[in-house]
Amino acid sequence: MPMNAQYRGPIEMPEVIPVFPLPGALLLPRGQMPLNIFEPRYLAMIDDALRDGHRLIGMIQPDPAQAGSTDKPALYAVGCVGRITQLAESGDGRYLIELTGVARFRIVEELHVATLYRQCRVTFAPFADDFVARKGEDKVDREALLGALRAFLSANDLKADWDGIEKAPNEALVNALSMMSPYGTAEKQALLEAPDLKTRAEILVAITEIELAKKNTEGEPQLQ
User: Does residue 79 contact residue 59 with C-beta atoms inside 8 Å?
Assistant: First the structure.
């Protein structure tokens, strides 16, 4: 989805952003993520993001390997910031929003704030390539990616819009499939932290092949 705002590099990004911890939620640059916002702290976060004018929300996963509390789980170091590009009020107190991914960030420190939602000082410098649309997509092994997708769909008796898939540029295809993938928190984080699009595609293919192998093994009769 095109955005009215143009972000040309890390220098144009804020140093402090609100963060929304959500396990299994993967946002990638130029990807779209719909969200149903109903908790008071996150409703306030949306209001503040709109009021402040930046309209940016940092999506990040809780890190289950680190100690934390139920209300304030430990976070992975890397997330992705998105801009609110659609917002609707439900009529029952919820916001229905869509975030469009801008760039990944690394947490420098979490701040002590008065807001109910969490805020972090972050850096975008390690991910300067995220601001360049379609960078490195010519290096993606598209056939391997489509092969893994076909195998996954067949194994799970699913269908896809192949006409749309065939027309999708490599960046959009890799990132959309990564975001929609049904894999766990660790796998989603690995996809997020991939250094480039080629590597992300390779990780997605490898994870898919591992899951298909598990499915095939589980379906085999057990020796007595």
Answer: yes
Domains annotated on the chain, with CATH: 10-131 (2.30.130.40), 137-219 (no CATH)
Q: Which of 100, 80, 132 is nearest to 5 (CA)?
A: 100
Share of residues in the chain with pLDDT > 90 (%): 88
Residue 78 contacts residue 188 (beta carbons within 8 Å): no
Separation between Cα atoms, residue 187 and residue 122, nearest integer Å:
23
* 20: CB partners within 8 A, 6+ apart: 35, 42, 45, 57, 58, 59, 60, 117
Residue among 3, 218, 1, 6 nearest 132 (CA): 6
How far is the CA of 94 from the CAs of 99, 119, 176, 181, 212, in angstroms? 16, 22, 26, 26, 38
The single residue listed with the structure tokens 């006409």 is 163
**What is the value of pTM for the model shown?**
0.92
Give the pLDDT of residue 1.
56
DSSP of 44-104? HHHHHHHHHS--EEEEE-B-TTS---SSS--B-SEEEEEEEEEEEE-SSS-EEEEEEEEEE
